[in-house]
Design brief:
Radius of gyration of chain B: 28 Å
CATH topology of one domain in chain A: Rossmann fold
CATH class of one domain in chain A: Alpha Beta
CATH class of one domain in chain B: Alpha Beta
Structural class of chain B: alpha+beta
CATH topology of one domain in chain B: Alpha-Beta Plaits
Bound molecules: iron/sulfur cluster
Number of strands of chain B: 7
CATH architecture of one domain in chain B: 2-Layer Sandwich
Distance between the termini of chain A: 43 Å
Number of helices of chain B: 7
Helix content of chain B: 25-40%
Shape of chain A: elongated
Radius of gyration of chain A: 27 Å
Largest sheet of chain B: 4 strands, mixed
Number of strands of chain A: 23
Largest sheet of chain A: 7 strands, mixed
Order of helices and strands of chain B: HHHEEHEEHEEHEH
Number of helices of chain A: 16
CATH architecture of one domain in chain A: 3-Layer(aba) Sandwich
Strand content of chain A: 15-25%
Distance between the termini of chain B: 52 Å
Strand order of the largest sheet of chain A: 15-14-20-19-18-16-17
Oligomer: heterodimer
């Protein structure tokens, strides 16, 4: 440990740190474009210049190691002057694109132009023009004019994604970012370059021009794309998710997320394939019915087939859903045949983030009791038992198990099948009753990732029974000040309920009182009954989650 | 509030003279005024037969400037952000035109608009301006939401306002 003085403040810092890191640890931000906490130091943007006493010239804070007794100033006239000059150089050829630039509102260059620049330009020559719409890869578009040559994206591809795909060509003010000959920016993590690009040079081809950042609300949640459970923000305008971006969590995903998780996990929330109302198979075919009718049908079928049931939980459902489902299966359905289907894609795993297990919660499902105990049948056993007509009825939550043809064939032999599902799929088509369940983006709850980290998911899209203000959603300005009569506040709300609520309603209709008002009630009960969750609460999970208690067997 | 009862009491003149009670002098005074006005020039405008053309400084309903068949607007959303009445909704999308970005949807709720002109002031493209139109009638609140179809107005038609804005800058 060494002691430095930063703007008059004495700081105790690790002697291996650079000035910028030391300042950051103490909550002081030194302006920077090219420096990033997880990338190597490039030192090319020069905006982090600071004055160090006894050194003849200004030094860059990102590449200067601290030393005992060092006295650093970040705001002397000399420094301010130098920063203004750097900003002036950066802006010389920067296009006046803010009105059409997706980065506007979250742009470092824009922010620093306000904070650190003089506010006018002395440059009245013609700006250098470069190509404006260059598709670098399937997901990333480059506006060459906007690039400030910080090389963050180049270093990301090399150092984090381990796929060197980007480089610079030309010199001076003609420098252009480009892919290596014959290459594309197509690594599985390519879109992180968009997040770390300090300007709007790299934009998402999926999100391009859809919304301004200040129009959306950002909800802290977790990606359901694989067992990693990357922390992310879900960005919503008018009750529709428009984009997802990674959220820092040092234990899980640091600053990153994969492209598949970012793009592939939210489109279904707004899709036409959603189940719009409870469905019931009648003589005339499948008809939409009210919740009460659907639930009373399920209740009467449970009375008929009690003890002939099997229950299929889901690694896509929350811990709360799975916990209550297995409790319901044991107490109300009277079965011990409880399991869930695994979705493992062998080989689709790397040392960065991606996991083979393409579900967010399989460890959680096992932990909370979605597994055959006391001689119950496993998933394969259940499928076999249906074929042999030992199991006559089944309850499936939040999983399309019939995607497997063998399973689909078995399900056809059932006398009664009830399914909770958000989307129409192979399984719902076989069901006698379908109860519309909300998606991960509409539920409160928790997932347990492959490390055993229990993490909160929060709803960003409201269903019919939810209200953004009353139910504590993240609110955009329009959400906060609009009225229900404004068109932009009238996004589609779907008639769907979280699985734990559907289960509780059925149990109550059968006379078993399940008294839970919120998913937090379910979680509190789960935390008090399941050993590895001891001591957890929604408040304690916070933004980054908590690890399951060690010493509890983690099944393979 | 008077604290003294004496000062608060109204004094009424009860007994008018006979001459006063005929009201004739008052009627004559009134008629003189009336006839004087008849002879003066008229101020009344026979609206709607006779319309008023506002000066270029007038702030009528906000419209989108159209040039060569397309709107100037690039869907930056600054007008929507600055609008104190939250009257504007803009949704952007990509276009092959040079401006790259255009409003796939642009709506102004004329029941919300307060004709403040902030949108015009905020716009970096001089794409939304206050027109000279002040006749806004609707019988259904849904019809008060003007889409692009009713907002677009050619730059030629808006010339006086555009020139006024340049002078005022
Ligand atoms: S594209 Fe963005 S991240 Fe890459 S070098 Fe240019 S400014 Fe930096
Ligand atoms: S690695 Fe997994 S959890 Fe992370 S973003 Fe990708 S799919 Fe989602
Ligand atoms: S004139 Fe004022 S109230 Fe009307 S749309 Fe423009 S900013 Fe909004
Ligand atoms: S401020 Fe101008 S360019 Fe921007 S959205 Fe409004 S009208 Fe269009």
């Amino acid at each position: 440990m060494v002691t430095i003085t930063l703007d008059g403040k004495q700081l105790e810092v690790d002697g291996k740190r650079t000035i910028i890191e030391a300042a950051r640890e103490h909550g002081i931000e030194i302006p920077h474009f090219c420096w990033h906490p997880k990338l190597s130091v490039a030192g090319n943007c020069r905006i982090c210049l600071v004055e160090v006493e006894k050194l003849p010239k200004l030094v860059i804070a990102c590449a200067t190691q601290v030393a005992d007794g060092m006295v650093v100033h970040t705001n002397t006239p000399k420094v301010v002057n130098a920063r203004e000059a750097v900003m002036e150089f950066l802006l010389i050829n920067h296009p006046l694109d803010c009105p059409i630039c997706d980065e506007a509102g979250e742009c470092k260059l824009q922010d620093y132009a306000y904070k650190l620049s003089v506010g006018y330009s002395r440059f009245d020559e013609n700006k250098v023009h470069k190509p404006k719409r260059v598709a670098l890869g399937p997901h990333v578009m480059l506006d060459t004019e906007r690039c400030i040559m910080c090389s963050r994206c180049v270093r990301f591809c090399e150092e984090i994604a381990h796929k060197p795909q980007l480089t610079f060509s030309q010199r001076g003010d003609h420098v252009e970012l480009t892919t290596f000959p014959g290459e594309q920016l197509d690594n599985p993590y390519s879109m992180n370059t968009i997040d770390i690009c300090p300007v709007g040079a790299l934009t998402s081809r999926d999100f391009r021009f859809k919304a301004r950042v200040w129009e959306m609300s950002a909800t802290e949640t977790v990606c359901p794309g694989c067992a990693r459970g990357c922390n992310m923000y879900s960005w919503v305008r008018n009750n529709e998710i428009l984009r997802q971006t990674p959220r820092f969590n040092p234990e899980v995903n640091e600053y990153w997320m994969c492209d598949a998780g970012r793009l592939g996990t939210f489109k279904h929330v707004n899709s036409d394939g959603r189940i719009k109302a409870p469905l019931m198979k009648k003589d005339a075919g499948v008809v939409e019915v009210g919740w009460d009718e659907a639930i009373s049908r399920v209740v009467s079928e449970i009375r008929t087939f009690r003890k002939n049931f099997a229950a299929i939980g889901s690694a896509y459902a929350t811990n709360e859903d799975n916990y209550l489902f297995q409790k319901f299966a044991r107490e109300v359905l009277g079965t011990k045949h409880i399991d869930f289907m695994r979705h493992v894609v062998e080989g689709e795993q790397d040392d960065i983030l991606l996991r083979e297990d393409k579900t967010p919660n399989s460890l959680g499902a096992v932990e909370v009791g979605v597994r055959p105990k006391d001689g119950g049948l496993s998933f394969d056993g259940i499928v076999k038992a249906i074929k042999e007509r030992q199991i006559k009825a089944m309850y499936i939550i939040d999983d399309n198990v019939a995607i497997n043809p063998t399973v689909a064939a078995a399900l056809q032999k059932l006398e009664f099948l009830v399914v909770n599902s958000s989307l129409e799929n192979e399984t719902t088509r076989l069901a006698d009753v379908v109860l519309p369940s909300s998606t991960f983006a509409e539920r409160h709850g928790t997932f347990t990732n492959f490390q055993g980290r229990v993490q909160r998911i929060r709803p960003s899209v409201a269903t019919l029974e939810q209200d953004r203000a009353l139910d504590g959603f993240a609110m955009s300005r329009l959400d906060a000040f609009g009225t229900p009569h404004d068109r932009w506040a009238k996004g589609v709300k779907r008639d769907a309920r979280p699985t734990w609520r559907i289960i509780a309603a059925i149990a109550s209709a059968m006379g078993t009182k399940y008294k839970y008002n919120t998913s937090e009630d379910v979680f509190n009960e789960l935390a008090s009954t399941v050993g590895s969750f001891k001591g957890m609460s929604y408040r304690k999970l916070g933004s980054w989650g908590m690890k399951l208690k060690a010493g509890v067997a983690v099944p393979a | 509030m008077p604290t003294n009862g004496e000062t608060a009491r109204q004094v009424r003149i009860k007994d008018l003279t006979l001459w006063q009670r005929t009201y004739i002098p008052e009627i004559v005074k009134g008629m003189v005024l009336t006839f004087k006005q008849i002879l003066r020039p008229k101020f009344t405008r026979q609206y709607p037969e006779e319309r008023w053309n506002p000066p270029s400084s007038f702030r009528g309903r906000p419209v989108l400037v159209e040039e060569e068949g397309v709107e100037r607007c690039v869907a930056c959303g600054l007008c929507a952000r600055v609008c104190p009445a939250l009257a504007i909704e803009v949704q952007g999308s990509e276009t092959d035109l040079e401006k790259e970005r255009y409003p796939i949807k642009f709506e102004i709720n004329m029941l919300r608009c307060i004709f403040c002109g902030f949108c015009e002031e905020a716009c970096p493209e001089e794409a939304i301006v206050m027109s000279d139109e002040y006749e806004l009638v609707f019988t259904d609140p849904e019809k008060a939401i003007y889409g692009k179809d009713r907002l677009l107005m050619s730059a030629d038609r808006l010339r006086p306002r555009l020139e006024f804005l340049r002078r005022a800058r």
